[in-house]
Amino acid sequence: QVQLVESGGGSVQAGGSLRLSCAASGYTYSSYSMGWFRQAPGKEREVVAAIASDGSTYYADSVKCRFTISKDNAKNTLYLKMNSLKPEDTDMYYCGGDRVEWVLYPMYNNWGQGKKVTVDS
Length: 121
Prior knowledge:
Elements: E1 3-8, E2 10-13, E3 18-25, E4 33-39, E5 46-51, E6 57-59, E7 67-72, E8 77-82, E9 91-98, E10 110-111, E11 115-120
Parallel strand pairs: 2-11
Antiparallel strand pairs: 1-3, 3-8, 4-5, 4-9, 5-6, 7-8, 9-10, 9-11
């Protein structure tokens, strides 16, 4: 059974940094696309950053040059380092992954429980 467990997040002042981690069990990251997504109440889940199965990365325009996605295949862990955080980054963040490319993330069957990130102005 695939399980994704997130850690990190929390509250920070604007301009600060946080890191999210997502540890996987039940499959190996190397064969999956993975990503970080966020969802505000009443809104659809949207991609923040993603890693394709070939290792290429994608960032939403709103987080380019501030956020970095990475993965450690040996530890089966996905990371999101968030720098220069802004109040508009406040949201629930979810890691997700599956054997389809990240652009098809609505089809992902595997999701973490979500972590709240709050950025105070």
